[in-house]
Each structure stands twice: as structure tokens, then as C-alpha cells.
Write a structure and sequence with these properties.
The structure is a single chain. The chain is α+β, with helices and mostly antiparallel strands. Helix content is about 40%, strand content about 30%. It has a 5-stranded antiparallel sheet with strand order 1-2-3-4-5. It is globular, with a radius of gyration of 22 Å.
């Protein structure tokens, strides 16, 4: 009887360990998906890649060039300035109220401790969607957008 109790307890312990391991592995590899409406965009700071993206999108939606430039790494800001021929602030300000996307679905891909990729699917009321991939880099204690693909199209 003692051997049988020991065997049953052993099987239960092994089952618990295997179940826990499976859940931990599944949890760490599964992308975290969030959905926001345009009204949920806000200045959320830069403490996490997700809050940094929310802040960046809010800046774009209201045409706030300071918020958008503060959301970028220095290199990405320099790239944007070059691409927009030094008219970055002007182009961002022209976006005020022009964002047609009404909902945003993001999926965070786990990167390293200082680099993360976020996939964004933006949809408008007519069902038109735009996909972008954002790379975020941790600089000090803040996360900044280091690259966007495809690049920002600020012409429409």
C-alpha cells in the first residue's frame, strides 16, 4: 500500500510539473495581442514598448511633432528628417485630425531585454487595413521607436 501511495503521488507530481512547464513555455512564446480604439490613444509615456507605441500613435493622430519626435530614437528621427527634407515638424502637424484608422491591433513579439518588435494592424471604419512593424529600442529607462517598416507615408 505504501509503494502504491508513493507511486500515485509521484505520478501526480510529474503531471503537475509537465503541465506547469507546458503552460510556461506556451505563455512565453505566445504573442501578446492588444486592441485599442483611436479614442484610447494617449500620452502613455515610454516605460514599456507598448506605452511608447501608444504615445507615438497619439502624437501622429493629433499632429504633435514634439511627441512624435520624442518617441523616436535619435537615429530614426534623423532618418525621418532626411526623408522629409527637414520638414518633419510641418508634416506631422499636417496630420492633425487626418488619421483615418479607428482601431489598432498590436502583437508584441518578444525580443531581447532592450529590443522589441511590435506588429500593428490599423483598421478604418470601411474595413481598410494597414500593417506596419515597429522596432523599439530601450535607451536608458525609456523605449523609443527605432525603425518602422514600411516607412511612414505622411503624404496621404
Amino acid at each position: 500500500w505504501t509503494k502504491m501511495k508513493t507511486g500515485v503521488v509521484g505520478v501526480i507530481v510529474i503531471a503537475c510539473v509537465l503541465t506547469t512547464t507546458t503552460l510556461v513555455i506556451h505563455h512565453t512564446h505566445a504573442p501578446r495581442i492588444q486592441t485599442w480604439t483611436k479614442n484610447q490613444l494617449a500620452v502613455a509615456g515610454y516605460a514599456t514598448p507598448v506605452s511608447a507605441l501608444k504615445t507615438l500613435l497619439w502624437g501622429i493622430s493629433v499632429g504633435d511633432a514634439n511627441t512624435v519626435s520624442s518617441s523616436l530614437t535619435p537615429q530614426e528621427y534623423a532618418n525621418a528628417q532626411k526623408a522629409l527634407q527637414g520638414k518633419f515638424d510641418e508634416k506631422i502637424q499636417q496630420l492633425n485630425g487626418r488619421m483615418t484608422a479607428t482601431s489598432f491591433q498590436i502583437s508584441v513579439e518578444k525580443g531581447s531585454s532592450d529590443n522589441v518588435t511590435i506588429d500593428l494592424l490599423a483598421s478604418d471604419d470601411n474595413g481598410k487595413t494597414h500593417e506596419r512593424k515597429y522596432w523599439f529600442k530601450k535607451i536608458g529607462k525609456e523605449w523609443k521607436c527605432d525603425q518602422v517598416h514600411p516607412s511612414f507615408d505622411l503624404t496621404n
